[in-house]
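Quick one: structure tokens for this chain, please?
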Amino acid sequence: MYSTKNMNKKLIVRILVIALFLSNMSFAQEKINYNTTQCTFCNMVIKDQLHASKATLESGETAYFDAIECLLNYINSNPTTKFKSYAVINYANGKFINATQATYLKSKAIKSPMGANLSAFATKSIAEKTAKEKSGKLFTWSQLLSIYKDEKVGHNKHSHHNHNRPDAHAPIGVMGDHLHAKGGFMVSLRYMNMQMKGNKSGSASIDDATIYNSYMVAPQKMSMNMYMLGVMYAPSNKLTLMLMQNFVKNDMDLMMRMMGNPMPMFTKFSTLSSGLGDLKLGGLYSVYAKGNNSIHLNASVSIPVGSSTERDDTPMMANAKLPYRMQLGSGTYDISLGATFKGNTATISWGVQPMFLFRTGTNDSGYTFGNNQKLNIWGAYKIANSISLSARVLGINEQKIAGVDSMLNPMMVPTANTTNYGGKRVNSYLGCNISFPKTSFLKDVRLGVEAGLPIYENYNGVQMDEGLTCNLGLKYSI
């Protein structure tokens, strides 16, 4: 009787051991296509073969992750999803093991892709030995699940590659700030409005009377509106291609002084130009991406789709050629080169982007807009999982126009005189980015808003005084 019970116990133990063995074998047999498969949570391509993980849903679908922390965050951010099993890579041999039975080590000496520095071990003894060697702390699966329910812990404080963070993208006024993983596609629609009112000579404000000493017409105010449709596609993890087409609308109010006896007469009038702007084709190429920092190169060419021959009626002439500032395009092929440096911590992200624009050739009207240099510096603070606030400073140095349009009278209005173009200015902006949870139907949508004012202006000659600039944007990524 005793021996039969003993034999039954031994049989049950053997069955459990075999079941556990087969279970672990099933985890080990499944493989990830490294350097191709994307993390379900953060969208990074999975490269690290010692920290990957996966979750099998009751539907049979498998979700893959580049790090244990991404798996944990995915589980906690999808509370209604039903899971069948979880698996993590055994750091000791690179094979899948049951995540719920593993022992976890957190050690700065073993870096994980998303920065939480979590590694999994099949046996506690090996984990304890490694912890002594690497000065780490051990956790169970249930302990990690509990810890990662805290919104302040996990992927949110790690790599800038995590596109779920609202500040993973720069403020909406910055172009070409981020790359996409291989196969990534994004469509964006942006709107920019800039208001100008009054005039400055150098850095000092001047009145209309001073302008009338040299010109017949004094600009009063101007509204510049730009609608930008952008497309980005990543043929590889290092290269993202982009296309941007603008629609431009310029509206300027002016005051003309007409000499008469005994008093001069003043006439108000407006000019308008609208249509397609220049088409921009370019690409972003990653040269460094490690931990929480990255560097990529920016390059693009502007194709002269926009008109440089816009006309409108004025008191002096019907269908008159409009000045340089009112034209929709440069009329030349322009090359833009630069680089973008980015980084982030738990709640803060930052970026620096120097850009250099080179004009090539002379347009059909006989002139070339000046080259310019821009420097964007920004920082953002993530106040919630879906909202970040940003501050940005933009410095611009623009050269004068080379050549002249023979159809424009430089004595008529300051905007028709090439000496009144170019200069230096610094603008400051405040903005907000909004993303949506992975469980939301808006999970692929991102919103951005930004407003700014000049804090320094030093123009060449007489130019309109720049006022408030607003940037709005909507992005959709798949």
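Helices lie at 2-29, 68-77, 124-134, 141-147, 208-212.
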